[in-house]
Structures are given as C-alpha cells and as structure tokens.
C-alpha cells in the first residue's frame, strides 16, 4: 500500500520548494515583527487616536481566519492600489499584480498581531530600572530602546519568534489558493500526477518535521549564546 | 467590492444554527487539550523515563506539521492503529475525530506554554511549601499551579484564538461547521457572492474571539493582584 | 530535644559540611555565626531536609531519622515538627497574609477553616499585623512580609523554628521590628535555631552561640564566653572583623 | 445537520436482503452540482445516482458520507471507504490502484471559456502562449493539460496551478476582466448559470474533450464492482442517467461521443 | 553650583514635596536624612528629572530649567550634568562591567571607543574593579555591581552625583566596600547629593546634613550641629530613634 520509492521521489520533489518557502516565511516574519513592534509601541505609549485604531485592528487580525483575510486581500488590494495610483496619477495594471505580493502583505499584517503580543510580553520582561538608568545617563528614548531595551527583550522573544516562524511556514499552505506553491502545495502537485496521496502527504510531513527539528536546534543554540551574556 | 448587506443578514441564521456545534467543539477540545497538556508538561518536568523523550517527539511532530495533516492522520490512521489492538472506532462520528485531533494538537501546543511558565515560578515558593510539610500533590495544586496561571495566561489566550480558527478542520471530514456552512453557501450559487459570505464568516469568528479574549482578560484581572509587572511605562 | 549527629554534605565533590554534631534543648535559642560560605545555610536546610545530607542522623526525643535509609513519610514527619523562616520570606504570592498562615494548617494539619482562621489571627496579632490580614505579599513591606512568614511558622506549632538570616534582606529601618518579634518569641519559650549577622542581637537573645568555619563547628558556648572570652584563635579573629569604622545603627520600637 | 456526521440513512431498507453488506461511500462536501447539501440534505448528480444504484443492489447497502476531496482518496487508500465518487477520470495509475467499473456514471465536457479578445480559442493547441487561469492541482484538468504537453512538446501550454478555494465564479470574472485569457474547466460546474446571472462577457467553446467519469472502488471487492456495473447498465438503458444529467447539468452529457 | 527652588510634587492629589529649596556648592557632600516615606527619593529623582515636578526651578551657574516650561533638550542637558546611582544598581544586564561604563560615553557623549575604554578603565580602577572588566552583572556580587554603577556615573564627569541609599540593598558584609568607595570619591572633590540611613557614615563624610520630614526640609547644617546640637524638636526625636538596644555592626576593609 505504501511505496517507499514514491515517497522518496515526492520527498526530493518537495525539497526543491523548501528554500522558497523558508525565504518567503522569513520575509513575512521580519515584516510582521516590524509592524508588530510599531503596534506595540503605539499601544504601550498610548498614543492618542492611533492607540484606539490599533486596538481594533489587532482584535480583528487576531480574531478572523487567515483564509478569509487572504481572500479579502486578494480582491481588495489591487483595487486599493488602483485607487491610490489614480490619486497619484501613475499607471497600475491590476491584472499584472503578482499574487505573491498579496500573500506577503496580507500575511505580514495578519501575523503582526501575534508578533505584537510576543513583543509586548518581551518588553514586560525588561525591568523598568534599566530604562531609568539609561535616562539618568542622558540617553534619548530612541537610544534607550535601541541600545538597552531591545537587546534584552529579544532574548525573551526569540523562542516565540521561532514558534511564529513555524506557524507561518505551515500557514503558507493556504497561499496555494492564489497559486503560491509551498511545501504542502508541492505535495499536492506531486500526487496530482501519480495519484499517490498517502506517500506525498507523508513526504510533506517528513519535510515539515525535519525543518522544524533543524530550526529548533539552530534557534536554541543562538538563544543560549545570547542568554549567556545576560 | 460591493457588499450586499441584505444577503449577509439573510445567511446569518444558517451560521447561528451551527454555532452550538462549533462552541461545543471549542469547549471540549479546549478543556481536554488543556488537561492533556498538564499531563504532558508533568512528564517532561519530572523527566519520567521513556515517556519524557516520547513526549518531546510528539511535541516536535505536532508543532511542525500542519493541522490538516494531523486531522487526516487521526481520521484515517487512528482507526487502523486501534484496530490492531482490537478497538473499533469506525463508528465514531466525524466530530469526535475532530475533537480528538484538536485535543492531541493542543496537548502539545499548550505544553510549550505551560512548561516555561512553570519554570518561572520562584524556587523559594516550592521550598516554602516543602518546609511546611506539603505533599508533592498539595504543593502542585495549592501553590505552584495558581502561580503558573498568570504567567501562562497570555499564551493560553493566543492558543484559544488559534483553537477557534482551527475548528474549521471539521469541514475537511465533512462535518458542517461555520466554515462548512460558508462553503455550502459559496458552492450553491457557484461562488458569485463569496466576498459577502467570507465577510460574514469574519464577523462571526471575530465575535467568538472577542468573547474568548474577554474570558482570558477576566482571569488576567483576577490574578493581577499578585502579579508584579515590569514594562516600558509605569 | 533535637540532636544532629555527624552531618555530612557535599556539592559536586566539594565537601561543605564535614561532620556536624549539635544538641539543642527545649527552650534553647541557638545562634550560628561564621564567615560567608561556611555552610550555615546548608546546615539549616539539612535540618528541614530541603537539602539531603550524604550521611548523618537527626534525632528527636521520640523519633529518629537516618539520612541513609530515609522514607518519604519520615521526611513529612520531620518537616511537620520543624518550621523554617526564609531569608527571602518566600510567602505564597497568590495568597493574602492570613491565607498564607492558614494554608498549611488546613492542608497539612487538616484543621477546619474556622480553627485555622482563629489560630492565624492569634499569630498575626502576636507579630503585630492584625490590620494587614487581607493584603497580598506584594502589598506588604519587607518587614511585614518577614513577620507574616514568622507567623506562618509559629502557627504550625513546631518543636523548633529555623531562621536563616531573617533580617538581611530588610531595609535598615525594618530590621528592628523583626528582631523585636523574634526576641519576644524566644522569651515565650519556643526553641529556636538561628543564623544571623546581627552580632549584638545574637549576644542579647541567645542561650548558646555556635561559631562555624569551613564546614565545622569551631567553638560553642554561652554568648558571654564566645564574645568576650573566646578560647579559639579563629573565633577571636572573626569577631575582630566586626569592629569597623562605620557603625550602623538600626531602629527599634 | 444530519449530513454533518456523514452518515445518511441506509436507503429503502425494506428491499435489502437480511445479510446486506454495508458499503462505505464517500462523496465531496460542497461541489455543486456533483454533490452538495440543500436545506441540510445531501444531494447532487453523483449522490442521486448512488442512491439509485443502492436501490438496485439487494446484497449491499450504501452508507453515503461527505468529506473533503483530499480526504476522499486517502480514505479509499487506507480502507476507510469502499467506494468514492467525484466525477473521477480513468487513468493508468488509478486503474492499477483501484477497481474501476466498466460502465461510466457520467461524462465530463471540457470547455474553454474566453473573453472577447480571445474568442478565437477553440482547442487545446490554441491555448499555447495564452495566460490560463490557475488549474486546481487536485482535478483532472491538470492531468489532461500535462498529458497534452508531453504529446505536443512544440506547442506547450503554460500551466499555472492553485488550490481549490477561489470559486468558478471568481475565475470567470477574472477572465472577463482580462486578467487571464482563458479558463478551461468541465462544463458541469455551473458556468452557464454564472455567466447568465452575472451577465459576463464570456465565450464558451464546444467541448474540446468528452471524458467519461467513474466511481472508484477499493481493490478488494470484485463482486461489488460487477454489481455496480450491472446496476449502471440498467440505469443507462432505462434513461435514468440521462434524466439526472439534464436535471443537474442542464444537458444530457450522454449525447456526446467520448473523445480520447 | 546647583540650586533647587521651590520644588513641588504630588502623586494622585497627595502632595509629597511641599516646596523644597536647597543650595549645593561645588565640592559639597550633602546628605539627606529623614523618616521613611518623607520624599527623599522623590526629591533626588526630581533633580535628575526621572520624576517631573509640578512646580519649581533648578539652576546651575550657567543654565536654568523651569519645570513648567521645560523642553526635551533641556532635560537631556540636565541629565548630562547630573548622574544617578540607584539603590538597585540598575546595571545594563546585557553588557559587561566595562561596557556598562563605556556605553553612555559612546552613545551620549559621542566619544570614540578607544577614549571611552581608557576612561572606563581608569574609573573601574578607582573603584577597585580592574580585574572584573569582562564580567556580566549576573556574575558580580551586589557590592561589586554597586561599584560598577558608581564608576559608570563617575565616567560621565557629571557636576554632581546623586546617590539613593547606595548600600541598603547590600548584604551587611558588602556595605563596607561601597561606603569606602564613596568616602574616597567625596575626598577627591566631587560634588555629592546622598540619601542614606547609615548615620555614622553620614556624620563622617558630609559637609552638610539636610533633615527632611513630610515633604519639607526641617533643618540643615553641618553634621556636628544636626547630630549634636540640633535646634528642632522633630530632628532630635528622629535621631533618638537611632539609639536602639540592637547595634548592627558592619565589616569594612
Ligand atoms: N546547591 C548548591 N550547589 C553547589 N554549591 C552550593 C550549593 N549550595 C551551597 N553551595 C556552596 O556551599 C557553600 C556553603 O554555602 P552556604 O550558603 O551554606 O554558606 P553560608 O554559611 O550560609 O554563607 P552566607 O553567610 O554567605 O549565607 C558555598 O561555598 C556555596 O557556594
Ligand atoms: N510613583 C508613585 N506613585 C504614587 N505614590 C508614590 C510614587 N512614588 C512615591 N510615592 C509616594 O511618595 C511618598 C514618598 O516616597 P519616597 O520614595 O520619596 O520616600 P523616601 O523618603 O525615599 O522613603 P524611604 O526612606 O522609605 O526610601 C511615599 O508615600 C510613596 O508612597
Ligand atoms: Mg547563608
Ligand atoms: Mg527612598
């Protein structure tokens, strides 16, 4: 029932999309962290108006399925860009719009909500005395954040960022809806030709598992490295 | 993107009617998943021989594979495995399989939240209980667990939100839940009003998640009185 | 009443306690002094079995416990007859002051809630905290926390209370209030084993001073002997360090 | 929501012999008109045929349940289901893995849908160099196009793929708007209705392929296959199938000659 | 050199500082004493602008800052001329000892790495920590951490250093080493504003003692006056508390 040579064939086929998947997920992770960081700062410093807007956005992004968000972005985004392009008077052909961009933008925004929670937790782990010490030495707020708070917070945040990275990698399987081929999509394509679903899904599971194990080792090593110093 | 509010209101009752099913699934899998994760965490912290490495394996697998795959594995694999030891679960309903998947998934996922929270509890607290003559079980339930909770709550909150969205795996095995109702609606007029359906779905999930957030925040407030905080501002 | 016999303890092949023998009689107030890193804390923790000694015996009048053949039940029995007051208080953070005192009475001694409540009230009164019953540890000052932790120990009616540097984590102004409470307990006839750096307090309160150095008891005797007519060179040397140019003065009520 | 658990009532129990064997049957959950639920009841072309077949077989009793299409075939592989139906095409790998009845239960008319600018497209070879809407990786079209490409290396078609998720209506709109040049799909997915309903400027080609569709059965049950075959044969000759086709597809798919 | 004029500060409608005026001359060592909760810490924090006063003015010889019309730039300028040593040290956890001292020189004073390194080495030498350059705070004892934090303040060459109970978080045995360092700095001519409970230390080191109570300065003057010939009843009363039956003795090297 289970043909191992087909399994290995699928496995090596799936490996070819791994770099692309990893890269895409990394880009989304980084963008998500940047957006999430900004949302956290808005929330922490209670910047008027923006603070309320951010709260509603965060709740919506967290509360609705990614699939739905992706779908709305797929139709909404070209129209939105078209609208702004019209305002700014430059040409934009929505028919040439690459769905990968839709995926990157909608995923980054969606996951920024979760990153924001992680970053908030990490900031909470930095004691306020550290910030006062920097202020008393004449650091500006930005200098304090960049040189003192972030290096300390990142240690706490790192394991959670790895979790997010794994979640993003897995969630990219939804992006096949708009033709972006990731690991699971590749598995489906492999089985579409040979009708061997069991083998291809098993191969996909193996690839995911392998990736997770490797990433965990890499992250843990890095975390121990920086934790030693604190 | 034109929105047809009249249509959205028309399809709402269909969603409301499957809401109890979804809520039951959330409740059962949340509760039993949590209990399983406590067990798993205990095994890992006590470093129980043989079981502890098995749990690590289970967690790394669950963390790394999409829940869709886990669903298929449980739905098709579990009956095969259990039939080997003479248990027949082929007459289980799809809902039970979905709950089983979610319980297994959350058992691993929550354990990764509980373990660091446990380690964050001050060693002195455990020693104080020891010195007063508490048994291990008394120490765990009366002292340690109430202190793990506030630390773990934000993570548990995130997990609950994920769980709510993960209930859509029900539809993979043909149980009609919110996502299933949506798919039926979309299929029945060949997708010409998919946007309206998805917007309705978004609103419903948002409402459930909002309530879940409130539920978690309630516990956060309750535990806040003995939970000291750091942070960017004060 | 309590006798330690030949207690040995090593950490990572490094011997910290090198055979300690110590007798404590009912009503005694025994104070251990000595340089940092000598093993004072470790000894106290062994008495409560928070640390498992490698060798040795602990004996109550009616009950013996040998560390080499110890059972879970024995440990619980030992712990129910001793009580520890920690340097860092270690109050249960999720319980109010009175709940902290009640908890072990209910859980360990199986008292009724009402009985536990009354006993706790009495003990909190004794340490002067009757007005802070419902405060959480985070809402109490260091001195107040330490007093709750003393009340928690007292409420168990242990045969002996162990104090490990009960004032060293306190602001100077709070030291006085805790020392006063301990003084009063000592006067009421409770048996006490205490580690402290407050020499003059030790001198005032103790019936016996034990000077430890490098894992051994160097000298023991009544305060007057140790502080004024010490027989050992090492003891004299140690006590001479405590004559500095900066004398710290603490409040007391 | 009685279809939710997937189990539908064993049909017309009275006509069954007492030792009737239960056959686990899986159909897709929401694929109108093949199989979908209406007012909470499972229906559709495949479902109704299965019920008719079930009624004809005394020694078998069908338990029809709905699952997602991915899950269907895995279930057949692992032995959870005995028979699945989703307008499957026949191909060598399937023939080797499963039992396929001799009788088809329907036919799939592959048509090309184009916008004004591309209305000249009338065959597969015309699609070379055109922007095709992404093809469902789980469907038979993907295989037809790949097969075409291997046979016509000089006039290859560029085959984009995607998951199910964007509906036929969405895809047709994308063709009408000019985002893509053409859409190729079996005609039985409601296209005619959508085009009319949304008033889209879409040209529909004549069938470029007419492909018979089959049930797939697990390898172990040769007897069931023969029983199903004879039932299908009767249903064809008495016109039942043509009638169902008209009801669900709007035309009698059996009138076309099978191409291959 | 530094003058505080009419500083007011309230928390939640509760006035903590009720108009403080204080003059400090170059080279002065001014010690603030007073009961707990009086606002000593709050006053020190206002001088460094870690707390924003509601009213009042702070004046250097060439630079004035009024709290009602303050700009971001002024705050930074103020902070660069003052330096704070915290009770809890607050060393940057992610930096080694020498990095802690270098950091602000590089970031705030824009010094070159080399110049910062040399200056830091000099200051760490001064506090006797030349052998701990590359240790992280977690690897240092409390007394060592407090000395690094003093070096960090000194390296900024502030016109005045503010100390808030620099020894009260230390184990009694470590107090001496920090007091010695402060003593030595005071002798080298640095201007110091200090809050402490170490009365005998205050008496030895200060050029001026300020006694605060309930948000006001009750009395100020040279140590001999305050400790021995105090004019105010409240001051005498407070100082009498510091004659207890338990005298705490600390080590010093
Ligand atoms: N869990 C442990 N693992 C390894 N070494 C330990 C452990 N606990 C204590 N030690 C070592 O044992 C020695 C004695 O420690 P202990 O805390 O008993 O000293 P102490 O006399 O209480 O000192 P202090 O007056 O500073 O509290 C120290 O050198 C310490 O480093
Ligand atoms: N951020 C704050 N919010 C509210 N009240 C505060 C705040 N900071 C200080 N206080 C209050 O101001 C009063 C003075 O506090 P402060 O810390 O200045 O006293 P202190 O003289 O330094 O006392 P101690 O000797 O105990 O350190 C106290 O009653 C305190 O509760
Ligand atoms: Mg000790
Ligand atoms: Mg203060």
Automatic annotation (TrEMBL), chain A:
Write the record's keywords in alphabetical order, separated by commas: Amino-acid transport, Cell membrane, Membrane, Transmembrane, Transmembrane helix, Transport
Q: What InterPro entries does the record point to?
A: AA_ABC_transptr_permease_3TM (IPR010065), ArtM/GltK/GlnP/TcyL/YhdX-like (IPR043429), MetI-like (IPR000515), MetI-like_sf (IPR035906)
Predominant location: membrane
Q: Where are the transmembrane segments?
A: 20-42, 49-77, 97-114, 165-185, 197-219
For membrane topology, the record states: Multi-pass membrane protein
Q: Tell where it localizes.
A: Cell membrane
What CDD domains does UniProt report for this protein, alphabetically?
TM_PBP2 (cd06261)
Its Gene Ontology molecular function terms? transmembrane transporter activity
Belongs to which family? Belongs to the binding-protein-dependent transport system permease family.
What is the protein name given in its UniProt record? ABC transporter permease
Q: Which example biological process does GO assign this protein?
A: amino acid transport
> Where's the ABC transmembrane type-1 domain?
18-219
Which Gene Ontology terms of cellular component type are present? ATP-binding cassette (ABC) transporter complex
Organism superkingdom: Bacteria
**Do you know which PANTHER family this protein is assigned to?**
L-CYSTINE TRANSPORT SYSTEM PERMEASE PROTEIN TCYL, MEMBRANE COMPONENT OF AMINO ACID ABC TRANSPORTER
From TrEMBL, chain B:
Which keywords does this chain's UniProt record carry? Answer: Amino-acid transport, Cell membrane, Membrane, Transmembrane, Transmembrane helix, Transport
Q: Which GO terms describe its biological process?
A: amino acid transport
Q: Where in the cell is it found?
A: Cell membrane
Instruction: Reply yes or no: does the keyword Hydrolase apply.
Output: no
Q: Which residues form the ABC transmembrane type-1 domain?
A: 15-216
Q: Name one GO molecular function term.
A: transmembrane transporter activity
What is the protein's membrane topology class?
A: Multi-pass membrane protein
InterPro entries attached here? AA_ABC_transptr_permease_3TM, ArtM/GltK/GlnP/TcyL/YhdX-like, MetI-like, MetI-like_sf
Q: What are the GO cellular component annotations? A: ATP-binding cassette (ABC) transporter complex
Q: Which family does it belong to?
A: Belongs to the binding-protein-dependent transport system permease family.
Q: What name is this protein filed under?
A: Amino acid ABC transporter permease
Q: Per the UniProt entry, what species is this protein from, by scientific name?
A: Sporolactobacillus putidus
Its organism's taxonomic lineage begins at: Bacteria, Bacillati, Bacillota, Bacilli, Bacillales
TrEMBL record, chains C, E:
Which InterPro entries does this chain map to? Answer: AAA+_ATPase, ABC_ATPase_HisP-typ, ABC_transporter-like_ATP-bd, ABC_transporter-like_CS, MetN_ABC_transporter-like, P-loop_NTPase
Chief location: membrane
List the molecular function annotations (GO) for this entry. Answer: ABC-type amino acid transporter activity; ATP binding; ATP hydrolysis activity
In the record, which residues are listed under signal peptide? none
Q: Keywords on this record?
A: ATP-binding, Cell membrane, Membrane, Nucleotide-binding, Transport
| SMART domains the record matches | AAA (SM00382)
One GO cellular component assignment for this chain's record is: plasma membrane
In what way does this protein cross or attach to the membrane? Peripheral membrane protein
Where does this protein reside within or beyond the cell?
Cell membrane
Q: Does the keyword Transport apply?
A: yes
Domain named ABC transporter: residues: 2-239
Name the UniProt record assigns to this protein: Arginine ABC transporter ATP-binding protein
């Amino acid at each position: 029932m289970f043909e191992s040579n087909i399994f290995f064939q699928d496995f090596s086929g799936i490996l070819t999309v791994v770099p692309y998947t990893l890269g895409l997920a990394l880009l989304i992770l980084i963008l998500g962290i940047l957006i999430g960081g900004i949302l956290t700062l808005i929330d922490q410093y209670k910047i008027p108006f923006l603070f309320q807007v951010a709260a509603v956005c965060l709740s919506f992004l967290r509360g609705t399925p990614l699939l739905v968000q992706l779908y709305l972005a797929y139709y909404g985004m070209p129209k939105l860009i078209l609208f702004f392009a019209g305002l700014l008077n430059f040409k934009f052909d929505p028919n040439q719009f690459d769905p990968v961009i839709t995926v990157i933008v909608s995923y980054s925004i969606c996951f920024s909500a979760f990153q924001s929670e992680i970053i908030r937790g990490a900031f909470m782990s930095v004691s306020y005395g550290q910030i006062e010490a920097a202020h008393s030495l004449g650091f500006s707020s930005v200098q304090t954040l960049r040189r003192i708070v972030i290096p300390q917070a990142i240690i706490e945040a790192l394991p959670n960022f790895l979790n997010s990275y794994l979640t993003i990698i897995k969630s990219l399987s939804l992006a096949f809806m708009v033709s972006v081929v990731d690991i699971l999509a590749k598995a489906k394509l492999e089985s579409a030709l040979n009708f061997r679903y069991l083998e291809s899904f098993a191969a996909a599971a193996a690839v995911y598992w392998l990736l997770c194990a490797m990433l965990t080792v890499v992250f843990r090593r890095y975390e121990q490295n920086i934790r030693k110093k604190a | 993107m034109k929105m047809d509010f009249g249509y959205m209101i028309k399809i709402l009752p269909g969603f409301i009617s499957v809401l109890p099913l979804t809520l039951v699934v959330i409740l059962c899998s949340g509760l039993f998943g949590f209990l399983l994760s406590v067990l798993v965490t205990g095994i890992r912290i006590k470093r129980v021989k043989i079981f502890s490495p098995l749990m690590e394996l289970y967690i790394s697998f669950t963390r790394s594979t999409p829940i869709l795959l886990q669903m298929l594995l449980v739905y098709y694999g579990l009956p095969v495995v259990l039939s080997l030891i003479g248990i027949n679960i082929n007459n289980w309903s799809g809902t039970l399989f979905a709950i089983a998947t979610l319980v297994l998934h959350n058992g691993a996922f929550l354990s990764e939240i509980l373990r660091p929270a446990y380690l964050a509890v001050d060693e002195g607290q455990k020693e104080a209980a020891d010195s007063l003559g508490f048994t291990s079980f008394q120490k765990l339930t009366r002292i340690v667990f109430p202190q793990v909770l506030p630390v773990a709550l934000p993570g548990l909150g995130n997990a609950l939100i994920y769980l709510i969205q993960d209930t859509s795996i029900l539809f993979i095995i043909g149980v009609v839940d919110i996502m299933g109702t949506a798919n039926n609606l979309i299929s029945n007029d060949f997708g010409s009003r998919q946007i309206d359906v998805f917007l309705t779905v978004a609103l419903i999930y948002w409402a459930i998640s909002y309530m879940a957030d409130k539920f978690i925040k309630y516990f956060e407030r309750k535990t806040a009185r003995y939970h000291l905080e750091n942070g960017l501002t004060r | 009443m309590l006798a330690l016999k030949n207690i040995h303890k090593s950490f990572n092949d490094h011997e910290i306690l090198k055979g300690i023998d110590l007798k404590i009689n009912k009503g005694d107030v025994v104070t251990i002094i000595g340089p940092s890193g000598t093993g004072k804390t470790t000894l106290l923790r062994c008495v409560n079995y928070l640390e498992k000694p490698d060798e040795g015996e602990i004996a109550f009048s009616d009950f013996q416990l040998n560390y080499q053949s110890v059972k879970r039940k024995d440990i619980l029995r030992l712990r129910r007859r001793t009580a520890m007051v920690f340097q860092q208080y270690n109050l249960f953070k999720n319980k109010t002051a009175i709940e902290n005192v009640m908890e072990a009475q209910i859980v360990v001694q199986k008292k009724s809630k009402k009985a536990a409540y009354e006993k706790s009230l009495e003990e909190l009164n004794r340490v002067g905290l009757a007005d802070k019953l419902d405060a959480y540890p985070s809402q109490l000052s260091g001195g107040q926390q330490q007093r709750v932790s003393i009340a928690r120990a007292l409420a168990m009616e242990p045969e002996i209370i162990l104090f490990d540097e009960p004032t060293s984590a306190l602001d100077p102004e709070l030291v006085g209030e805790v020392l006063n409470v301990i003084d009063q307990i000592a006067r009421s006839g409770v048996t006490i084993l205490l580690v402290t750096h407050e020499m003059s307090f030790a001198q005032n309160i103790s019936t016996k001073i034990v000077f430890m150095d490098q894992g051994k008891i160097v000298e023991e005797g009544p305060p007057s002997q140790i502080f004024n007519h010490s027989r050992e060179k090492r003891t004299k040397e140690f006590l001479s360090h405590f004559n500095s140019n900066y004398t710290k003065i603490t409040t007391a009520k | 929501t009685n279809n939710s658990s997937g189990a539908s009532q064993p049909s017309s129990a009275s006509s069954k012999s007492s030792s009737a064997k239960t056959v686990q049957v899986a159909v897709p959950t929401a694929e109108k008109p093949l199989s979908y639920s209406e007012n909470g009841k499972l229906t559709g072309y495949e479902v109704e045929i299965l019920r008719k077949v079930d009624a004809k077989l005394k020694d078998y009793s069908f338990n029809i349940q709905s699952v997602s299409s991915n899950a269907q075939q895995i279930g057949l592989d692992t032995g959870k289901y005995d028979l699945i139906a989703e307008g499957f095409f026949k191909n060598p790998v399937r023939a080797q893995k499963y039992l396929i009845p001799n009788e088809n239960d329907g036919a799939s008319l592959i048509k090309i849908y184009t916008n004004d600018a591309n209305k000249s497209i009338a065959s597969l070879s015309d699609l070379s160099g055109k922007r095709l809407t992404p093809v469902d990786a789980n469907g038979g079209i993907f295989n037809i196009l790949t097969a075409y490409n291997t046979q016509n290396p000089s006039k290859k078609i560029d085959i984009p793929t995607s998951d199910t998720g964007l509906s036929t209506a969405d895809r047709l709109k994308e063709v009408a708007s000019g985002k893509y040049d053409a859409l190729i799909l079996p005609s039985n997915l409601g296209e005619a209705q959508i085009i009319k309903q949304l008033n889209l400027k879409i040209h529909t080609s004549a069938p470029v392929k007419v492909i018979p569709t089959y049930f797939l059965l697990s390898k172990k049950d040769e007897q069931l296959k023969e029983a199903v075959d004879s039932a299908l044969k009767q249903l064809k000759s008495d016109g039942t199938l043509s009638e169902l086709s008209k009801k669900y597809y709007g035309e009698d798919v059996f009138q076309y000659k099978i191409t291959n």
